Amino acid sequence: MRSEVTFLGTVRRVVGARVLVELSPALPSSIPIIEGRSYRVGQIGSFVRIPLGFLNLYGIVSMVGASEVPQSEVHGQLPPAGQRWLEVQLVGESYGRRDFQRGVSLFPTLEDEVHIVTEHDLTVIYGERGPGQIQLGSHATSANLPATVSLDKLVTRHAAVIGSTGSGKSNAIACLLKALTEGNYPSARVVVVDPHGEYRAAFQDRARVFSIGGSVDRLVVPYWALSFDELAWFLIDRRQASESLQESAIRAYMSSEKQRRCSDLKAGLVDPNSITADAPIPFGLRELWYHFDRQERVTYKDMGRTDEALLEEGNAATLSPARFEPPGVGSTPPYKPNPGTTLNMGSNLNKILARLKDKRFEFLLDPGRYNGSDLDLDDLLRSWIDHGTAITVLDLGGVPSDVMDLIVGVITRILFESMFWGRSLEGTGRQRPLLLVYEEAHSYLPRKSGEQFVAGYAARAVRRVFKEGRKYGVGAVVVSQRPSELDETVLSQCGTFFTLRLSNSDDQSRVRSVMPDSLAGMVELLPALRTGEALVIGEAVVLPTRIRLPLTEPRPKSSDPEVHVAWSKERKEDVQYSAALTDWRRQGLKHEN
Ligand SMILES: Nc1ncnc2c1ncn2[C@@H]1O[C@H](COP(=O)(O)OP(=O)(O)OP(=O)(O)O)[C@@H](O)[C@H]1O
Ligand SMILES: [Mg+2]
User: Fold this and answer.
1) Going by CA atoms, what residue is nearest to atom 10 of ligand 1?
2) What number of other Cβ atoms are within 10 A of residue 581's Cβ?
3) What is this structure's pTM?
4) How far is Cα 436 from Cα 415, in angstroms, rounded to an integer?
């Protein structure tokens, strides 16, 4: 009724799902008070209700104006000057005041009434908190109303959390993970790929944190789980698909060593005939180096090249080469191998040796007890995704930036393959989904692969998760400051977007491109969002929603430094730069606070 306190105005124009509403001149102010609560009329992103008999239509306010004319209306009939109007996008309907559904079955017509949506109506739209919903803060316009998202849709349809630096993305992830650990989900499992080591502080004993050089949980990514391509890229800088003679020899050595190991694998034996150099089966990398190095150095006492002129065997484990008598001059013994039989591996061997000696790659090249007999990949998987707590943080803080792409790729592949091959096993696969969170994804999932060091290993593996993960119970969330620089396949497969404050116009247009056309206007909100406020669009929410996330405590270690406090302290005389240098050299933080 027009006399109701919620009465806002009348429908003046309907174009598809877009409705132009003339505000009632009788509306006393723009902040009417209804049931003791004040409502601001015409907030962008707020709702209105259009009752049509038993049916209630709901729309989102996308534009507001007075006297001036919206650009889109210049060809049509204009609202008379001096009046106040709202542009509303219809989004759903309910019968009576229950059972909200997306989409509309009837459209309003001229002179239909438009009402303010009260908090009660909002509970109709967003529903009571049912099973499978997790709470992430509250509605930005209505602090009393909890904002919930569907856990199923969030995990199986993937999500993206995007926003400029400092807009609150890491805090949003911490809120999400906290909701999981605090909810009743004892079998939940989430792996956070954390390139900057921010999350240890946020979860403390509620997460298991693996880090490079970690004293308790050391991050190990066994080199033997890499495919031949990946290993060749890393060890000998192989950059093209074609294979040199030397590379083929390495491949052949790896296959035969992997086939040999098939008979003593802890996790179970496999038929050697089905094994290639790509199989995730242990082999000795140091032995590989020793084997080829020895072939390069060997000399013979006899012309027939059967009797080696060996001085001393070396040791693969300590990377000491074998020693032979130096070759004689001209045709005097000792003899070098026949020219046609040598591979000239010198430069490749030097590269392999340099990698093996580099402390920074210990987590990869020295897998310790993960040798297939003491511990196998299944033990590694168990330690990553099946322990007392729901959350695993893989702190990649110490991973050199040039191999970040490779490492994220391998980690993703190990996890994905385990879910793929375990898809019908009890307690994993589809029966117990896994959520992967990729922090700072723009740094290893760039839009154009192949630049500089990025070979696209991460992109390939993560794209597979986004495209096929749903079928095997793997969900993923990417977190990024720069959606415009993020891999397109990954972004286009995200079902839900949590968009925090976003000021860059390229990034905004990326978000606009994934929004339904009718709501593209809401993108204009993005630069004005407060820190910790997110526009949530997509499958996990009934309707696009502006939510306000609480600040989690303890926080991820990403808080802004307080410059004025830090700089106003007394100057410290004896700063331990040497400690920083030592940690830099040994690639591990000794004293972290
Ligand atoms: N919901 C919130 N309410 C209030 N303050 C917040 C909220 N979320 C984050 N902040 C503040 O904003 C700062 C940055 O937050 P956060 O680290 O989550 O940003 P970010 O988007 O992850 O940034 P980056 O892209 O640099 O990683 C923090 O210092 C935190 O105190
Ligand atoms: Mg962050």
Assistant:
1) 168
2) 10
3) 0.86
4) 9
